[in-house]
Model the fold of this input.
Amino acid sequence: MARRIAIIVLVGVLVVASLATRHETRSTVIESVEAPADSRLLDEVETLMSKRSTIFEVCDDTIEDAAIAEKMAELDRLEQQVVPVLETSASAEHLLVAALMIWSDEPDRALQLLGEAAYQDPRDPLIASQLLALCVEFGGQCSRPRFEIEQMLIVADRANGLAWVQVARSRLERSDEAGALNAMQEAAAAATYDAYFPEYVMMFDRGFSASADLPAYERLEAAFGFAAALPASTHPIIQDCQRLAQNSPEWLDACLRFGERQEHASRTLLGKALGLGLQSRMYELAGDKRREQETERRRQEFRNSFGDLAQKAAKADKLRDASLAHQYLDTFAASGEFAAMEYLAIEVEARLPGIDSAQQSACVGP
Done:
């Protein structure tokens, strides 16, 4: 698998790989940024994806490939068990979980469930975000006017720069470039940059707990996989910035400032990588070689900082410890993904002393 879309560290690379196969018609993170104008940014994301997705036997891709069919069957069985229970629930969160399990195969049904969830809890940022993401993806099938859903997300998550990026992309898709620029300027000035990954994992875990009889670790494993395969509604802004900033100083400034904030404020490694890559591209367009080179230096430092750590943290799956997984999520939510990986690496060293540096160094990184 040359281009994997897995975006997790702890567990679920097989889950994500199978979901990627099931959802292959959807634009993935990698496909969204794969613009010939900037192959360096594609390489940055692919390198990060590869390092973050090496969970089970990191040196042997054949193990991953051999397990995909089995994992797909398990996920299909889980979906068939869980969705009928959750879609009849009075809980807005349960409706959201059901919608996000079927969105690629049954978009009409997913949008209906999301509409019901939004009616119950219009100020939930996860519900508002996913409703807008699916309405952009399947625009003609959305029951509400797009601008109403954009406003719902702004009200629900105004301080989050990634919410404003979603609004910007939605406005661009409906040919409102001036409104999109205003949203990007808001994104560049936002207080937080939160993709809510640990929150999505715990949401799926609660939904599975209410609707399926699974051991705690297997439930979390599935939750990680489904959370990792959610629609990637903000990453395509990279392409938009590359296109619009070429002829607009206002777009160049907004995209550059957004990249700077992503680098420093994102809780995720992917967010930081994309922020650095976007800055580098904007400096290149501006002809500022000095700042471009300085950004490239920081990108290299960033690469070096997480590579070995991710490889060690991935071994935590061998422990199959649900309490460890919950602590990882708590650390992620409170302090970011890098701190959560450090926590896992410490646990691996303490509890799996047989994993030595010789075993880890035998794997050749991307």
